[in-house]
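Self-study notes.
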Amino acid sequence: MSDTPADDLGCLMVVDDDALFNRVLSRALAARGFAVESATSLDQAMALLARPAVEPPDYAVVDLNLAGSSGLKLVVALRAANDACRILMLTGYASIATAVDAIKLGASQYLAKPVDTDTIFKALLDDGGPDDEAAPEATLSLSRLEWEHIQRVLGENRGNISATARALKMHRRTLQRKLAKRPLKD
């Protein structure tokens, strides 16, 4: 791929609190034709959106966890600024619950980290619906279903471990042990 962009694909906002990842991704997507603005916090991203007389982004790549803040708040703000904005949510802690929340709030795509630039680029430009052939044929294991349920309830309780443990009717320490474990891949 050449260093000069072939097309002007529009304005893209990259929001990730990992400064190195943010910088590398921003440069790679700029080389592919996007006019890129980046932010490393929710506050920086909101400030970029609030600038007067500046067009809102056409595309956005948003990390779900922004140094303790939720990237879901930014999805709502991006949708309010430009309803046609294609928003790609990235997360290192993927769960069905957070994916559903992101899509309900207006994210166009949801990808789990680690992910490469080509996959991000394709997801930003892909206007198609879900790929029926990509759907898993096997059902989720019991441990994975439990993990997904815990993540959903944890999200409903805004990350509060004690409230989540009460809602799940389990001891707080038991919940903490379960959260410390990564679910098995199905």
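Second protein, same conventions, sequence then structure:
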Amino acid sequence: MTHRVRCGSRSGYRPGFPIACLLSVAASLMGCNDGSDVSSKPPTLVHTEKARLQDRQRSATLTGDVQARVLAELSFRVSGRVTERLVDVGAHVNAGDVLARLDTNQQQADLEAAVAKVAGAETEVRVTSATFTRQNTLFAQGFTTRSTFEQAQEDLRKAQASLESAKAEVGTAKDNLSYTELRAESPGVITARNLEVGQVAQTAQSAFTLAHDGARDAVFDVYESIFFEQPETSAITLALVSDPAVTAQGRTREVAATIDPKTGTVRVKIAIDSPPAKMTLGSAVSGTVRWTPRDRIVVPWSALAVAGAAPAVWVVDPERKTVSLKPIAVDSYDTGIIVIKSGVQPGDRVVTDGGKLLSPGQIVTFSAEGAS
């Protein structure tokens, strides 16, 4: 590059021109160095470590609660005004225990009417039976017509059918009277109550929710991403949140077929094998699932950089002592570390600290800790 410096004018001599000339020459020479040669910079001190494969096993711990395998909604089979409520939420009941009662006036009146109808039907059967017996005797002796005999026979059959119907109505009335008492169908715990004394309960309206004694489930609402990988085993470790020393093993019993549109979660029920006594209904429990172990490269958070929109790390060339930026695929972000799926090979020297101001091709020197 040739620089022509004009240090004066043709018209004549100007005082101080040697100094002006020197300054102009210096400025021109400084413009020749554009600073693009990275290798001319002094080596930058960084912390590094060699990438090594580690046996990594992912796990996830979620919180749910203990629920009964069978939940029954108990309701009256007849309508009426509630006169008694004998249990409340949390009460343990046995099969056949009375939970609530309705006013029995209507059902009692229906039963009395049905009993009276049976008495009338029995009287009708006696009368038609006597008539049929008489007509049968007369018909055998030839003193009555066949049509009269058959009519007496038909009347008896109708009376007998009416009696059977009246007896059935008595049975129905007795059942309706018994239905004014709401009883527990099996032993369990009352988990919900929906009626009060004086309230008019409608047929099939839920009055109590009964959690049956017996099998227990741990119920969790989990995100769909947890199903992307196959767990190591079907066993799930459960622990009581209030006392982690109380543990149990469980297995997946039921997975909801749809995702809850409000929460975006899937309901999963875990059958608890031999639940401890302290894992009572409603207890908060944590469930831990583990996936199959895999070999992965792990680096600290401080090693993370960005290449465009992708995560990356700085890798040192062992011969030239220069750095290059390598995009990586991240398997997971854990506390203080990054688990790398691909992009870095075992043995690569990764910059773990001091990479914020690096540029590709820059020469670096290692700290004592990273020199191993």
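Instructor comment on the second fold: The longest helix spans residues 105-141.
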